[in-house]
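Reading is simple: the token line describes the chain's fold. The lines below illustrate.

. . .
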Amino acid sequence: MGQAETVWITGSTGFVGKAVSDALEDAGFQVVRTDAELSVCEPERLEAFAEEVLPQAIVNCAGIRRDAAGLSNRVKAYEVNALGARNLALAANAVGAQMVQVSSDDVYSSKLEEPVNEFDNPHPDSPYGKSKRAGEMMVRQTTSDHIIIRSSWLYHASGGQLKDILDAAAAGRKYEARLDQFAAPTSMDTYVKFLIAALRKKAHGTFHVATKGRASRYDFAARALELAGYDPSQVLVPKTDPKTAENVVLESLMLEMFGVDLPTWEEDLEAYMASTTA
């Protein structure tokens, strides 16, 4: 056995970062984790750290979240989501590492008429989406050795929407679920499976990692509750709001062209729920 590949993960205590860090460790990678103690806004410190740990890849999970990247906070959002991504790409260049940028379906308009693939030009309509789009552009301009991964409605049972839904049911509380927000919910299991394969195969380019099909937030919540043994009608409160209705469905065309068979969102959720209760 050769020496395990070292992967540096930023934002490692966040919703995506912790799940990615744990999964890569389980897969045999030597994982180096950093979070707020090493800001992505400090390029000299980032480069010095990269030279200290000498990673083969840097996975950037750091970022200002969607709900914290409004107009009032747009400068900070760009500083972290755009310039931070560039700073890490520069650090990757300094040590010959591959740069992996965690992106989002928010780089597209929130009201699409049809699915979008990796060849469709992004047109974000939110401050968060614009900052994530800028981060992608910074990475592309800074290093050719990169992977950019877009996904949508990532979930795992330790936090976020899925945990909130199941916690509400367990506590006998109601949970509001939107009937008019649509995407392709994707489990962290499916997401990290692609990431691990991409790192091992030294892939590069832009990829959509999203399940097949389309679900509303209500559809997703109802199926998750059914799989957990609850009656959705006793938990969910349907909600709509034309001002914040969304339809963003990613098509994983690059993976399909490489022969990767992604599950439907229902299959993905069923497999994930079965694995968490096994």
Notes: The domain at 6-154+186-208 is CATH 3.40.50.720 (Rossmann fold). The first strand starts at residue 6 and ends at 10.
